[in-house]
């Protein structure tokens, strides 16, 4: 028997059969551990090192220094912050000789094969420590090439954010790199000043002396007659007496001023201005629209805010790391007539169209008065390691498939308990992602790879979109968020029109050059069909529901194991056979998703009878393999593998829904199995603090049970298990209420009660 804690620590010991209390603790523990902190905004210099579409940083020094001498050396340096220990695989692709140091230790020295073989990739493991970690690359110029590509393996999933070293750039995102030098240099202290070593570091962090003598908008955008730009700051009024505020300064062109969203002044011509306004106590949005006038030899403005003779502080309107000393954000330059709505300005979730033409027009975002210095939001919360573990940092603001199940679980548990605070939290997690969707697309266009919403934007497989997309549509009923539907349309187009299929129409993974090349996974039924069900429900497009039903029939053909009436995890088309390993959670995904499709299918749908029969076959197979504890094994037909919690929760969920919706011919055995599964979970997998144990980490695949049992170990509070625990508990409770109501309302009981009354 697999044990994760002693009996007095179990949820059952503390709360017994009180399912609502169990759901409450599960939901509240998760919310308490995952604070609503979404993205970190940082300064990033666009002239710095950009990423490619794989998420690798492209340090091609030949392009940056085409005249560099042979054997000259360039260095690149970065910092990586670790909230806790994290093991990560990184990739290096050499253009020439490279040495890679991590935390001052030589991790890799390129071989001649690495240096001269196009697209040769080396995978290296690094251990990120809590606190600051240093990255140092030494790259030598040869006729074969100069530099390298560097980044994390599966960069859209296992994110590697790098920050600029040296205290002059503290808080900025990105690498620094040196001009080529003729001799090797030792790694300097990357947390000290960059002037403490004799390398010339790029990109430039400050304007040149001549540029500093130019008005701000001119040095940022140049002289562009007829164009205009916006500047945004916060005016901090700490005067409690209500005295008026004077805005005084100099303008190099016409200018309009808004304070607190209200137009308070307009400057028609270049020259000094002095206006008196009323400002609320505290922080006030101050917005300037400045126009570059024809014939003018400068463009910009200077502004001070005073109460009497005391200057009021101007502050950045949003927290931006790496922007110490700055107080204005800038957006532009806009063509005449390209005027953003005032309601769209003074916010961080908009990208601004700068030309009148609607199609293919240039767009922009907020930036600083520094060389090429734009503001970028970064996802910097819980980070995946090689084993899919994320540690104890908040998951809020992350778009990925395990969190799709978590959001769904929170929504259903919150609805069942009539807790709008829980459903609101779940919906707001989704909104944190979707409200930055348009920005994320622009971010990828500008920088090669997005810094947020990586999986949604770099949409290449079902894992990237289906689960979280389904949760997004489920939460649409809670918030009617307008950003959801355009994203849902894009996901639906990907699934229905662009996703790889076999000749019979079955979804599968091509994954050229990767370990999963030419495979079909049972998991992908969950990554696709629940989304298609909800998309059909929200949009009325029945073809999405038809596709969901069709995929089950197709997957059954490849993955069903008739001797056990369960599913193989994967079919490998390279070998033209299924692995014949019935991984528990892969089967759980199958049953879970099938119930979602059956709930939505009309009675007259032609696929419904076959899918009802398939559902009964699977449930018969799963029920036969349930252990004495109520849990199922990691490999379902191998009792020597450990007992696993997430598949158990999915089977409980599926059985309970089958009973409630009347899909079983004889439901009694499945009532018992669902109840045994739930009791097994609260006794053995959910402790009294709401921590979830016994959930295996994210899987690859194998033809042996040993991989699933020995390599895929369990992780406490793994995101693959938390949401499904809430869903299982909710569905078992609904099943029991359904059975109670049915008995209470039965004709026999009603007649008996009437007889007793007489």
Automatic annotation (TrEMBL):
Keyword field: Hydrolase
Any Gene Ontology biological process: carbohydrate metabolic process
InterPro entries hit by this protein: 6-hairpin_glycosidase_sf, 6hp_glycosidase-like_sf, Glyco_hydro_88, PolySaccharide_Degr_Enz
SUPFAM superfamilies named in the record: Six-hairpin glycosidases
GO molecular function terms attached to this record: hydrolase activity
Protein name in the entry: Glycoside hydrolase family 88 protein
């Amino acid at each position: 028997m697999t044990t994760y804690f002693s009996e007095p620590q179990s949820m059952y010991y503390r709360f017994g059969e009180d399912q609502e209390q169990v759901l409450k603790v599960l939901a509240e523990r998760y919310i308490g551990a995952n604070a609503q902190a979404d993205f970190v905004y940082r300064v990033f210099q666009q002239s710095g090192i950009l990423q490619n579409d794989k998420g690798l940083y492209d340090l091609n020094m030949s392009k940056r220094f085409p005249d560099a001498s042979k054997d000259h050396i360039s260095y690149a340096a970065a910092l990586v912050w670790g909230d806790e220990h994290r093991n990560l695989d990184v990739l290096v692709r050499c253009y020439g000789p490279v040495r890679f140091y991590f935390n001052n230790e030589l991790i890799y020295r390129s071989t001649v094969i690495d240096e001269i073989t196009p697209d040769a990739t080396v995978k290296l493991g690094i251990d990120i420590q809590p606190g600051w970690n240093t990255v140092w690359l030494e790259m030598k110029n040869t006729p074969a090439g100069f530099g390298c590509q560097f980044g994390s393996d599966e960069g859209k999933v296992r994110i590697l954010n790098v920050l600029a070293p040296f205290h002059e750039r503290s808080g900025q995102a990105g690498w620094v790199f040196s001009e080529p030098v003729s001799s090797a240099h030792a790694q300097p202290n990357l947390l000290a000043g960059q002037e403490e070593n004799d390398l010339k570091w790029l990109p430039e962090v400050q304007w040149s002396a001549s540029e500093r003598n130019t008005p701000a908008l001119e040095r940022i955008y140049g002289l562009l007659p007829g164009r205009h730009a916006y500047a945004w700051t916060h005016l901090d009024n700490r005067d409690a007496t209500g005295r008026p505020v004077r805005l005084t300064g100099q303008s190099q062109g016409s200018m309009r001023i808004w304070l607190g969203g209200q137009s308070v002044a307009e400057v028609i011509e270049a020259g000094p201005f002095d206006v008196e306004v009323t400002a609320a106590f505290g922080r006030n949005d101050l917005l300037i629209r400045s126009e570059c006038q024809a014939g003018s030899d400068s463009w910009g403005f200077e502004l001070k805010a005073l109460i009497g003779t005391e200057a009021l502080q101007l502050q950045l309107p949003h927290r931006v790391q790496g922007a110490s000393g700055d107080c204005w954000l800038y957006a532009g330059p806009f063509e005449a007539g390209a005027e953003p709505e005032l309601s769209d300005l003074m916010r961080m979730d908009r990208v601004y169209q700068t030309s009148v033409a609607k199609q293919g027009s240039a767009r922009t975002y907020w930036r600083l008065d520094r060389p090429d210095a734009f503001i970028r939001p970064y996802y910097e919360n819980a980070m995946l390691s090689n084993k899919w573990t994320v540690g104890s940092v908040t998951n809020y603001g992350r778009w990925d498939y395990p969190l799709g199940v978590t959001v769904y679980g929170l929504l259903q548990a919150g609805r069942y308990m009539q807790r709008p605070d829980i459903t609101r939290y779940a919906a707001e997690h989704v909104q944190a992602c979707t409200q930055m969707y348009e920005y994320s697309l622009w971010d990828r266009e500008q920088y090669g790879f997005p810094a947020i919403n990586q999986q949604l934007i770099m949409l290449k497989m079902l894992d990237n979109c289906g689960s979280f997309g389904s949760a997004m549509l489920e939460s649409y009923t809670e918030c009617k968020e307008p950003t959801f539907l355009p994203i849902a349309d894009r996901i639906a187009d990907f699934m229905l029109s662009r996703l790889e299929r076999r000749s019979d129409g079955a979804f599968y993974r091509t994954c050229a050059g990767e370990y999963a090349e030419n495979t079909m996974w049972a998991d992908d039924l969950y990554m696709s069909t629940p989304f298609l069900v909800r998309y059909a429900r929200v949009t009325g497009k029945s073809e999405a529901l038809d596709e969901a039903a069709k995929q089950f029939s197709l997957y059954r053909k490849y993955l069903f194991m008739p001797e056990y009436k369960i599913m193989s995890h994967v079919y490998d088309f390279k070998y033209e056979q299924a692995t014949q390993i019935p991984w528990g959670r892969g089967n759980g995904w199958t049953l879970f998703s099938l119930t979602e499709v059956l709930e939505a299918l009309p009675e007259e749908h032609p696929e419904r009878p076959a899918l009802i029969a398939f559902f009964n076959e699977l449930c018969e197979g799963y029920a036969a393999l349930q252990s004495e504890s109520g849990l199922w094994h990691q490999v379902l037909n191998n009792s020597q593998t450990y007992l696993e919690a997430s598949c158990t929760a999915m089977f409980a969920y599926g059985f309970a829904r089958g009973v409630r919706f009347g899909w079983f011919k004889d439901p009694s055995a499945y009532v018992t199995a669902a109840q045994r599964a739930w009791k097994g979970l609260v006794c053995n997998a959910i402790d009294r603090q709401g921590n979830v144990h016994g959930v295996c980490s994210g899987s690859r695949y194998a033809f042996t049970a040993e991989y699933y049992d020995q390599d895929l170990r369990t992780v406490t509070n793994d995101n693959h298990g938390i949401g499904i625990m809430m869903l299982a508990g909710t569905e078992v409770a609904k099943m029991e209420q359904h059975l109670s109501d049915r008995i209470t309302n039965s004709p026999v009981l009603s007649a008996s009660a009437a007889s007793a009354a007489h």
